Amino acid sequence: MRLRRYDILDVYTLEELRREYTRADAKGRISLLKELYEQKQGNPIPFDIARLPVEDPEVEVRQWIALHGRFLNYSETNYERGNHSIERPERNLEESLKNDPDPFVRACLRENPTVFSGTGDFYWMPYFHEATHLERLALMRNPEVWCGNKLIQRIFDYENQELGLTIEERKELIGAFLANKEALAQLERWTEIGEAENFLTTVWELASKWPKSPESDVRRAVRPILMPHVVYRYVQANDKTKAKIYQAEEDRICRLRILENCTAADVQTLALGMKDKDKHCREMANEAKRKAAQ
Description:
59% of the residues lie in helices and 3% in strands. By secondary structure, it is mostly helical. It has a domain at 11-75 and 88-110. Strand 1 (76-80) and strand 2 (83-87) form a beta hairpin. The longest helix has 15 residues, at 279-293.
């Protein structure tokens, strides 16, 4: 196996990269950055190269580096006698992007998991409070946002007003989170080993407390998101949780969404569906059971 183009970034290669970057158009500069990051396998690239897209006059290039750049804080922390100080703060490219003149670039940075991450409210609540609504929507699409599960629960809690959200803002934030395939996949993996089950159960229980939309709105998929139907359909939960909420749910469209989410493992829920007073629910439950038996 031979060395690849950027395996060794000496002074000559760095100058070659810089010149290639400056000669390219916006699309070419992004392609060059993708190639470099792929070869570095997600690790930081040299500061002298990373700062070029951060300072680029083309907003689409700054947008790309804000979203896809890795570990953009090149400043240094000096620890001495129990104290620490930041040296060369001008090399913190994250701060440069946080102050970018374009609001969408600033928002894209919030989706970057090497810039915004951490476990628990200690990290995610300050991220949320200091952000604009546009930036909050990007935070909900951050692959690491599931680590801020208490924040997510507050957003799903229709009666919780401590975040100061309007109903439309809350719906949009929920929609952004539910479109976050990476975060939901991680939660589902953890559920398989019992780590995230309580969180997903809580999301279902909170969703069940939302006022129901008229059937006509559900059929037309009125924007921005319909609660709790979308949770029942796309968020995983165990059979016990599904059966409990199904039994208490008076809205037949909601019951149909729960049945759409069922697999062969959801024995209790499917049994309830097969005895449902609504013909469509019975048909869906029987169809789900038939498919599970194949």
